[in-house]
Design a protein that fits this description.
The chain is built from no helices and 27 strands. The protein is mostly beta strands. It has a 5-stranded antiparallel β-sheet with strand order 1-24-23-22-21, with no helix packed on it. The chain has a 4-stranded antiparallel β-sheet with strand order 2-27-26-25, with no helix packed on it. A 4-stranded antiparallel β-sheet has the order 3-4-5-6, with no helix packed on it. The radius of gyration is 18 Å and the shape is globular. The two termini are about 35 Å apart.
Length: about 325
């Protein structure tokens, strides 16, 4: 495990600040390799707008619906082709938060558990939560590391064996690293297995954010939303899912534009779909950017849906839908 304390910088604040500069979404091909997923004439559709800060999209196959978070509004919304956008869960995080203490009290990252339940990185409740669609109830899965409360869990990835990798920056807390609610001396990347305790993967990153596994689950990717050193890290994992070594996968300081490394997903062929300065990128497993989506503001996250043939993007105040030329979730 890669532990220890990070030097804690000021929280980069970009939520909702770029709305005035927003433009119609565009797609830029940076390499012919982009044609694998993006057909000529691909159009980007805006399916939701007026969001305070769109985040954490996840596709729910059982109901053919997209769920996405609005952390500062403490709300999860639902989108379907037939019904459009409707409220799904409010509060999505902590009920009746003190605005002097909580900057983002709602849910952030969302994922679908192996049992069909929704797993929530709950920034306000400072825990991973399980939401049962049938009972319409939620319960905490894990909220502490070595007896101390998490900062504000931000994003997560569920491995095939049920283990959950998640990040814990201080974004949900007013004053971040100096918040009086803060109990841990680091911003962590963790691995948690049902029935077990959270294991610290890395406690040295300033602002760990998006997280995803490679298709073979031997590499863990973690984005670092540090405006002084924006990057995506890669961790080689052993058979237990714990890190052997780490490296900088992509130095995002070479990119320009609004936003920072944030949410990401990995296609079945290893292509990364990831947030970075200037928009949302497709990158090869060798870290070569091959396409970019942009709209004048930050694009925080993405998710595959509709059989893997659609990419959903959460970009500041809106959610966008992009058809893909082939399924991102199918092998071959």
């Amino acid at each position: 495990m890669i532990g220890g304390m990070a030097a804690l910088a000021t929280i980069p604040v970009w939520s909702g600040t770029a709305a005035a500069a927003m433009t119609e979404p565009t797609l830029e091909r940076l390499s012919p390799l982009a044609d694998r997923f993006l057909a000529p004439g691909t159009r980007i559709e805006t399916i939701a707008s007026g969001i305070r800060w769109a985040e954490g999209p996840v596709w729910i196959p059982a109901s053919n619906a997209l769920l996405f978070s609005d952390p500062p509004a403490n709300l999860i919304r639902r989108w379907t082709r037939a019904g459009g956008v409707t409220p799904f869960l409010t509060p999505s995080g902590l009920a009746n938060p003190d605005p002097k203490l909580f900057r983002e009290a709602g849910s952030n990252g969302l994922a679908l558990g192996r049992d069909g339940a929704l797993v929530i990185a709950d920034s306000g409740s400072r825990a991973l939560m399980r939401y049962d669609f049938v009972a319409k109830k939620r319960a905490p899965l894990v909220d502490r590391y070595q007896g101390k409360r998490f900062n504000s869990p931000n994003d997560l990835h569920i491995a095939r064996n049920g283990a959950i990798y998640f990040t814990d920056p201080p974004y949900g807390l007013v004053d971040g690293a100096t918040s009086p609610l803060r109990e841990l001396p680091h911003n962590g990347v963790y691995r948690w297995t049902p029935g077990g305790e959270a294991v610290l993967i890395d406690g040295t990153l300033t602002y760990p954010n998006g997280v995803a596994l490679s298709p073979d689950e031997r590499t863990l990717y973690v984005s670092v939303s540090d405006d002084k050193a924006p990057r995506i890290m890669a961790y080689d994992l052993d058979a237990r899912g714990l890190p052997l070594k780490r490296r900088v996968f992509f130095d995002a300081s070479v990119l320009k534009g609004p936003g920072l490394p944030d949410g990401m997903k990995v296609a079945a062929d290893g292509t990364l779909f990831c947030s970075a300065p200037g928009g949302f990128y497709l990158m090869t497993p060798e870290a070569e950017p091959i396409a970019r989506f942009a709209h004048g503001g930050p694009i925080a996250n993405g998710a595959f849906g509709e059989g893997g043939k659609t990419l959903f993007l959460t970009g500041n105040d809106r959610v966008m839908r992009v058809p893909l030329a082939r399924s991102a979730t199918a092998r071959g």
